[in-house]
Amino acid sequence: MTTLSELPDEQLLRLDHQICFSLHAAARAFNGVYRLALRDLDLTYPQYLAMLVLWEDGDQPVKQIGERLRLDSGTLSPLLKRLEMAGLVRRERSAEDERSVTVRLTEAGTALRGRALEVPRRISRATGLDVADITELRALLERVTTALDAAVADGATLTGA
Q1: pLDDT tens, 106-119?
Q2: What is the pTM of this model?
């Protein structure tokens, strides 16, 4: 197996050798497919992700949803506000800690889950991958994410220190 250190210098900066670009291109392609698949639900992709978390785990503090989705409050708060305006969720301040806001599904938000069940099937068909391929790809991406998080935490790996 060839390692990056064995590649000639002129190959290192080729766009087609950058894993980040492959992931970026795939993410943009996914966004296009999700835009179409979610049109009937009147959700954006980030809104869909928030709904997935709520359908899976139930009522949660905004902070916990943000951690799960890797979104900061500046991105998550407006997203949740739009879901609330659409009647899908309610945001309620905690009586014990006014800084904490809990997000709860409304009846309409709960009902939307049934209509959303077809979305993963549509996406799966669009990828052309079978369940085993998807499982393998997700495992690889989770390994990459864990390694990248560790590299950021270490810092020295990225700065050459």
Answers
A1: 999 999 999 999 99
A2: 0.87
